[in-house]
Every structure is written in structure tokens, then in C-alpha cells.
Amino acid sequence: MDHQGEFRRAALELGIPDDEISRFSRHLRLSIGLFGGSGGSPVGQFGGLPRLPVGMKWPSAGDVPLPLLFSVDCAALPRVDGFDLPADGTLLFFVNQERGHEDSSGRYAQVVYVPDGAETAVAKSPDPVCVREQFDVCAELRAELPLWLQEGDEDEDWHEYWEDLDWEDMSPFQ
Predict the structure, then answer these.
(1) Domain locations in the chain?
(2) In 45-61, which positions are buried (b, 16+ CB within 10 angstroms) versus exposed (e)?
(3) pTM of the predicted model, to two decimals?
(4) Residue 32: which residues within 8 A CB-CB, separation 6 or more?
């Protein structure tokens, strides 16, 4: 579904001028939110064992196997213009969260793309720590305005939010 096109059509039907719609749309921050549990159609799973291409070794950082954090079916995700996500296939996210937060090199995180039609098999875990409880993951399209456009308390100053952030403590994941 073309969500941006749907938004534009609905706004035009309400009589909002096209140039105003374009100006407002440039400020929308679209994202695909993932959440566990019920409440939507599953698009993947948290935990469990991955289906890796036949012959592929379990992803690791040197001799440290990386746990499967989650996987998503790209064809099941909401489509958003400008998001460079594959149209189909599966993305597998492997992350060692304990070591990853201490190392900003990214070596404790890997994303594996498995194209549709690739011959796959359920991988055998190299270590029980790599297999977490499995449950469904669902997705939703989110649209947010930048902080400076959001309504808030008259006394709040959005500049203070940015000034209070401790950028030194932020990892690339945050």
C-alpha cells in the first residue's frame, strides 16, 4: 500500500492545497515499528532458530556466535517510498547485546538477507545461549512530527530536550 499517496489523497479530498500537503509531508518522520505479541499479523519472529541458506555458517564475531535477535519477512512489512528495504526475502538480525554495547565497531551485530527462493534449512545452534524464546513479531507504520512541530506545554522549550541529551554516552544503537 502506498501510505504517502493515501495521505495525500485524503488531504486533497478535505480541500487542503497540494503545496501545503507537500510542505507538511516533508516534516513527517515515517518508521516501521516492530512489536511482540498479538495485535496484528505476524511479519516475523523474535528468537528461535533461523532458516539460513544451505551451507551458510551461523553468524559470529570471530569465535563468538551471535544470537538471533529477530527475523522479518520483507514482503509482509508496510511499504514506504524511500525505505531501501528488499521487496521480498527475509532479514535475519543477529546481535550479541551484552558485548555489542561495549564495542562500537559493529562486529557484534550482523544482518543476513535471505532472498526468496533460496534453499534454506533450520540452522543448528552452535551454543544454547544463541537460542532465545520464540514469539511472533508484528509491524505497524508510524508517522511522527519532529519535536519542534509537536504541540506541548506552553512553558516547554523543545531546545532544552536536545541540550539535555548526553551525546557522549550515546552508542550507535541509541
Answers:
(1) 3-169
(2) bbbbbbbbeeeeebbbb
(3) 0.72
(4) 77, 78, 80, 83, 139, 140, 141, 142
